[in-house]
Write a structure and sequence with these properties.
about 80% helix, elongated
Length: about 290
């Protein structure tokens, strides 16, 4: 019996070993196939976004060489400042590929390609915007700022460019200029909630409390429970010595943030100030009455 049991166990062990080997081999083959399939898909993303009429040189792997060829061709054919339809099509395809390369993480190629193609059309909005975004991601906000500044001159009513410029200025701590840019953004689109919120915050930060109050109220019409903007509104009222209005807003803040001890302290301070002011007024009236 022991012999038969041992034999059976050995058979099962052999079976499991073979099954494990088969699984390992299958897993290796599957991984290899999956790797090459992903590689093939990645390569084909670029081919699918361009027109069939696009030169093969643009989609081959050697991107540095292909870009130089494209640039040289256009520079040789270029007799005036206006781009031909053919040149515009080439630039459009470059923008598409640059965006795809950027999304795939090929930053260096994207940056080099954009800079080279901007030598042909320096005012191209899409290429400039993409280059500025790359600089933002690299925390090179000054370079991004310079690009956006050039673009707002050309595209004076482009809301996205103004918002981008205002944002990179804010990141550099240049709040007064950022405030002016966001005010210009508001004049372009008075319904943009992001712009309204930024104007309120920046206005408060630089001491423009009246504007901070106006824009905070405007923002709160659509989002009345926004804690940050309610706080901006309350502090703006305080700085404008509008204690009753400030107290009213702080009570709303307290409802939304009941465990905020700082708000409790400010509420008590305001109540004390209001009481002192009330007593001061009463005393002044009594003094006048006694004098008369």
């Amino acid at each position: 019996m022991d012999f038969l049991l041992n034999s059976s166990l050995i058979k099962y062990e052999i079976f499991f070993i073979l099954a494990s080997l088969v699984y390992i081999i299958f897993h290796i083959i599957h991984s290899i196939i999956f790797f090459f399939l992903n590689l093939w898909k990645r390569k084909n993303i670029e081919e699918k976004i361009v027109n069939e009429a696009m030169p093969v040189s643009v989609i081959i792997e050697n991107h540095a060489n292909e870009t130089k060829v494209g640039v040289e061709e256009i520079l040789e054919d270029k007799n005036n400042e206006e781009l031909s339809n053919k040149e515009k099509d080439k630039l459009l395809n470059v923008v598409k590929i640059a965006k795809t390369k950027f999304s795939l993480g090929d930053i260096e190629w994207t940056k080099a390609s954009i800079i080279e193609w901007l030598s042909i059309n320096k005012d191209n909005r899409e290429l400039n915007m993409l280059l500025a975004i790359i600089y933002e991601n690299e925390h090179n906000y000054k370079k991004a700022e310079l690009i956006y500044k050039d673009l707002v001159i050309i595209y004076d009513h482009d809301l996205e460019i103004h918002k981008k410029l205002g944002f990179v200025l804010s990141l550099q701590g240049r709040y007064e200029l950022a405030y002016k840019i966001y005010k210009k953004s508001f004049s372009i689109n008075e319904n943009d909630q992001e712009v309204i919120e930024m104007v309120a915050n920046l206005a408060y930060h630089i001491g423009e409390y009246t504007d901070a109050k106006i824009f905070a109220k405007l923002f709160l019409k659509n989002k009345p429970r926004n804690l940050e903007v309610l706080t901006v509104l309350a502090y703006s009222h305080i700085n404008l010595t509008e204690r009753i209005e400030a107290l009213e807003i702080l009570k709303k803040v307290k409802e939304l943030d009941p465990y905020n001890s700082e708000i409790d302290n400010i509420i008590e301070k305001l109540k004390t100030e209001m009481e002192l002011q009330h007593n001061f007024v009463i005393n002044k009236k009594e003094e006048k009455r006694e004098e008369s």
